[in-house]
Write a structure and sequence with these properties.
The protein has 2 helices and 28 strands. It is mainly beta.
Amino acid sequence: MRIVRRVVSIALLVCLALLGGCVEPVEFNAVIEPSAGHVPYVARIACTPPHGTYTVELPNGTSVTTEESEISVTVDRLEWEAEVRWTDGKEVRVDTVTATGTNAPPTILPPRLNGNAYQSSLRAREATLIDFTHYAGGLSGPESGVVYDGPWQIVSIRLEAGEKVVCGAIMADSVYTPPYENGVYHATFGGQLWENACLVYPLVTMETAPNGRPYAPEPLVGYTYDGARNRNVLLGVQFPEQTATIQVVVEDDWGRRTSASFPIRVAATGTGDSETWGLEEGQAPNPGQGEDPTLFQDADFYVSGVSDPHVHRRTCVEVCRTPGPTRVYYLSEENARTSGKTRCPICFEE
């Protein structure tokens, strides 16, 4: 009799336990395969358990709901993440899947100069095309430009001569992209428009026009050309042969920025590059400029900052307090004052 009672008691306990919900919780997880690849690529999200309703919240804000435990998706960005939700009508579970794009960033090879695959040096003060469009290697010359399998654009190009240094900062050459379009790097050269390119005049730095762009040394569409007043800051200055650096920054379709630098030889200014370079026929240099060419170290020009109301002599200590990229230059004090600058009381004190 006691044995029967014990069996009944155990049975009751088992029933109570079952009624109390002693059931294993539902475990849910989702995985994406492959989890890495060249974007865009098709991947598969596999879910467990295999029965229920699945909703995938995609990164673009849309969602997919299905009763299939395997869902096909397109990974369309370098860092891709989706939320996966499962329900059986009573319980809800959530998991997250991530995938990574393996797309290589752009590779930047040396540019072509003047459309010539073999040109490897620059001539001072001569209009020069710097072209970063990709050209495959072959009989026409070595491979050059930006190598990438998607859209890209140039963010900036700079040409910096190693011996054009003012108070610790290189005085960059002026860069032009005619016909000017804000943010677009292209240039007219040799009667045609070259994309992913710009024009420079090596060792030339021009004053800044009221529109914020450098004055043009010759008529260029979109730039101010002042035929009445010379705007070449280094008028009459001569340079020895030296090494310059072409610096470029490009941005790909994923917003990644890649930069590269290329050293290049710049020939010395020649006897034809006198103090009258860039002047119209019969036009004289600005007052205050010497008749004989000078070395850059002895050049007499003036420096200010984009937001600085004062203009400083190039040798003034105040110049050192102006960051190199924000400096603006003037051939003469008169030109600076015409643009609205006033004398720095420290630099011009008697």
